[in-house]
Specification:
The complex is a heterodimer of chains A (402) and B (177). With 402 residues, chain A is mainly alpha-helical. Chain A has 19 helices and 6 strands. In chain A, helix 6 (103-131) packs antiparallel against helix 13 and helix 7 runs antiparallel to helix 8. With 177 residues, chain B is of the alpha/beta class. Chain B has 2 domains: 5-140, 2-Layer Sandwich (Beta Polymerase, domain 2); 147-177, no CATH class. Chain B has a 5-stranded mixed β-sheet. A two-stranded parallel ribbon of chain B has the order 6-7. Classes of the chains: A mainly alpha (402), B alpha/beta (177).
């Protein structure tokens, strides 16, 4: 009631509102976002986001790259969980070319993707802590995130922008060092994670700051196209991994956590915390049941041959040349494939005319879609709550701006 | 209702005859329907509100440009999703590049707001009735719609990357820059 009468007075206060530029660069927004806020004291009356500061024309670029060379572009969408983007793209091309993967490759992908999800959620949740004034948890879990990146390094040689895997499988089998690191991680991480959890989950200050900050109802969230943890925080259990299982997700048992229905910062935090535990469950199942067999499909048109073969076998040299020069034949057709990214349904709508590059490639970027709701979520809130709402939505500039 | 592409199609034909210009099952098994730009809004509203079809979630929408399709150069593809039945449908509407207008669907789904702005930014598609149709990712004073096919990725006067040096003309007349 109070809030309502407050807003009914706003018209008469119009001349007294202060305009505040939050961003484009601001230490509290973790990326290049600009919001022009109309402030009444410490309260936000309206917000006008401006985006596109790091727009890199990915959709145009993708129309001029052979299929294998589009993977590095997808790295730079949600760069907190690049492997999920990479593999989502690979699966899209595999769907187009009707490539079936051996089970081992699919399980390996699941392990990598869930590790990426853990890293993504760790960043988001620990940053919520930072924004509420608790830096300790952030420094704890960044050590663990570092271990995940070391594992990526063992698999693909890079850390942040991974370019991991290939169309048709993984580029190489897990190395002994990777096995060692993963086993150590699975043994030590749960306890460290619970320690981090104990720092925040029932922390009175943290709860007081997060509960009720940046709420959204399930109806509004769906109308705004929310997916992923932000939607589940509102109480809707939509998860692409369950709805349209890809890469053998149907083989694993895991729960989809949902929030209390209020859809506030605390709900989003709790959903991500539980998803980390569920990701660990999936990794354990996938790793303990990792099937024997090849780690990539037998698709010489897409999968680069072994380097020694390129130097010694004519056929391998020809395939190598054709793949690198983008002369691989692909069928004409249109496919939509989506994966559960760190932030929600990451979709790839690919139109192929049979040419060497996509005729059109559209990315469904969850950040771009749900960030629209931000002004509505912070209307009437305090400025400090707006910072929390943004970090708990996990808005990643790379995915927002493409 | 047993949900498959045929029953969805039959339901649309039965309830809203004349809205569809064509339909096919897409390469990935998703039902593709085509409609005119004048009727796109009505069809999408019906798909969303019909109790049996219940395509309640707008997954994404995107523009397309086919310079060779005379009179139908530009198009918009809407991806809808029915979560309870886990069914998708793609709705396409085509129009000419000289008259790139189509009705907005921001009144049906607020999420269409930025999606439509993005396609305006990329292709110059004007969504009639949109609350604020301005560029969203590119700079405001850009005077081209960069996703249209006539705009090359790089400077068109460059010759060092000419495909002819590699003994080919590019795929179907398009060069590979």
């Amino acid at each position: 009631m109070q809030v309502q009468s407050y807003f009914s007075q706003l018209d008469s206060l119009e001349g007294e509102l202060a305009t505040l530029n939050l961003g484009p660069t601001h230490p509290a927004t973790h990326g290049i976002f600009q919001n022009v806020l109309k402030m009444d004291g410490e309260r936000i009356v309206s917000a006008e986001p401006t985006i596109g500061y790091i727009h890199r024309a990915f959709e145009k670029l993708a129309e001029h790259r052979p299929y294998g060379q589009i993977t590095p572009i997808t790295d730079r969408l949600n760069y907190c969980s690049s492997p999920i983007n990479n593999m989502g793209w690979h699966m899209t091309v595999e769907k187009l070319a009707k490539i079936e993967l051996p089970k081992r490759a699919e399980y390996m992908r699941v392990i990598i993707m869930e590790l990426a999800r853990i890293a993504d959620h760790l960043v988001c949740n620990s940053v919520i802590g930072v924004d509420t004034g608790a830096l300790t948890g952030f420094t704890y879990v960044f050590q663990e995130r570092e271990k995940i990146y070391e594992m990526f390094e063992e698999v693909c040689g890079t850390r942040l922008t991974t370019n991991i895997g290939r169309i048709g499988g993984m580029e190489r089998d897990f190395s002994p060092a990777f096995h060692h690191k993963l086993r150590t991680f699975l043994k030590t991480f749960p306890a460290i994670f619970e320690e981090f959890n104990n720092l925040l989950e029932r922390n009175r200050i943290f709860m007081d700051r997060c509960i009720g900050a940046g709420p959204i109802s399930a109806e509004r969230a769906m109308a705004y196209g929310f997916t992923g943890p932000n939607l589940r925080a509102t109480g809707v259990d939509y998860d692409v991994r369950v709805m349209n299982p890809y890469s053998s997700y149907q083989d694993f048992e895991f729960d989809i956590p949902v929030g209390s229905g209020q859809g506030d910062t605390y709900d989003r935090f709790m959903v991500r915390q539980e998803e980390i535990r569920q990701s660990l469950r999936i990794i354990n199942q996938a790793y303990n049941n990792l099937p024997e067999g090849p780690y990539h499909a037998d698709v010489p048109d897409f999968y680069l041959p072994e380097k020694p073969d390129v130097y010694t076998k004519m056929e391998a040299l020809i395939y190598h040349f054709k793949i690198v020069m983008g002369e691989t034949p692909v069928p004409a057709g249109e496919v939509y494939h989506s994966v559960e990214g760190g932030n929600g349904e990451l979709g790839f709508y690919l139109i192929s005319d049979g040419g060497r590059q996509p005729y059109r490639l559209h990315f469904r970027r969850p950040c771009f879609i749900y960030y629209q709701a931000y002004p509505e979520m912070i209307k009437g809130a305090m400025l400090s709550d707006a910072i929390l709402a943004m970090s708990s939505m996990n808005v990643i500039a790379g995915e927002l701006d493409a | 209702m047993h949900f498959n592409n045929e029953t969805v199609l039959a339901r649309i034909e039965q309830q809203k005859p004349g809205l569809l210009l064509g339909s096919e099952t897409g390469y990935d098994g998703v039902l593709n329907v085509e409609t005119s730009r004048e009727q796109a809004h009505e069809l999408l509203q019906f798909l969303r509100d019909d109790n049996e079809l219940n395509f309640h979630f707008l997954t994404t929408l995107c523009g397309m440009h086919y310079p060779d399709h005379s009179g139908k150069e530009l198009g918009v593809v809407y991806h809808l999703h029915n979560w309870p039945e886990n069914r998708r449908i793609r709705v396409k509407a085509w129009f000419s590049v000289e008259d790139p207008h189509i009705a907005t669907i921001t009144d049906l789904w607020p999420t269409a707001n930025w999606m439509e702005r993005q396609e305006y930014d990329f292709f110059g598609i004007i969504f009639n009735g949109h609350p604020k149709l301005t560029r969203i990712l590119n700079v405001e004073d850009l005077d081209v719609f960069p996703m249209r096919k006539e705009y090359r990725l790089e400077d068109g006067t460059r010759t060092d990357k000419d495909d002819r040096f590699f003994g080919r003309d590019g795929h179907e007349g398009r060069s590979f820059d």
